[in-house]
Structures are given as C-alpha cells and as structure tokens.
Amino acid sequence: MTQSGMMPAITQQMQDCIEACMSCHSMCEETMSSCMQQGGQAQMQVMRALMDCSEATRMCADMMMRRSPMAGEMSMLCAKVCDMCAEACTSVPDDQQMMRCAEACRRCAETCRAMAGATM
Fold first, then answer.
1. Residue 85 neighbours by CB under 8 Å, 6+ apart
2. CA distance readout (Å), 21 to 8, 44, 101
C-alpha cells in the first residue's frame, strides 16, 4: 500500500506479465486436455509439468492483480516452472499443441523474469 492507503496502479509491465501468465495457463490446460483425448499413456513428466505450470501461472497472475508483496518472488518461481514446462513440451516435438504450449511457456517465463527484475 502507498502512504495514502491506496494500492499502487498496475503498470504496463505488470499487465503484460498478467496477460502472458493467463495465456500460458490456458494453453497448459488445453494441452492437458489434448493429451488426455489422444488416449494412450501420456508421459507423466510432461503432464506433471503442465499441471505445475498451469497452477503457477494462475497464482502468479492472481498475486500481481492483488499487488501481493510476494509477487516478485512468485514471478521468479513462475519463470522457472514455465522453463521446465517448455522443456517438457519440447520432448514431444511432433505434437503441434505441445510446441504451441512450449512457446507460450517461454513467452511467460520471459515476462515473469522481467517482472521480477532479473537479468536474462
């Protein structure tokens, strides 16, 4: 909170990060659904990475929207989870949904690192 008791405004950088997180969250959910529809045994490592990324990106966006003092640290963790998910998705290179998800994860990781003030 600022000294006047009002929450600080959401900056353009925060808005970009929130949007990237929500886009990545949606893409992970769609990719999990796609994996399940294909039948067969989806690779558990990939599914775990998708689940972790879906949850981390949603939580990160939520924390930024409510101006949590932990949002910067969550952004750094979110970037790591997104990197892990992108790597897991690229382990299935013949699946176009996985490749789209990997790209969304990379984009989100980049905006989260910028939001956290970390160098790339």
1. 28, 49, 50, 52, 53, 101, 102, 105
2. 20, 23, 12
Residue 7 pLDDT > 70, yes or no? no
Q: At what angle do helices 96-116 and 71-89 cross, to 10 degrees?
A: 160
Nearest to 20 by CA among 70, 49, 56: 56
Look up residue 58 and give its amino acid: R
Among all chains, which residue has been given the structure tokens 């998708």?
Answer: 50
Q: Model confidence over 64-108: pLDDT tens digits?
A: 999 999 999 999 999 999 999 999 999 988 999 999 999 999 999
pTM (two decimals): 0.86
Quick one: how many helices (H) and strands (E) in the chain?
A: 4, 0
The full set of domains in the chain, from first to last, is 12-116 (1.20.1270.360)
**The one-letter amino acid at 16:** D
- Residue 8 near residue 14 (C-beta atoms within 8 A): no
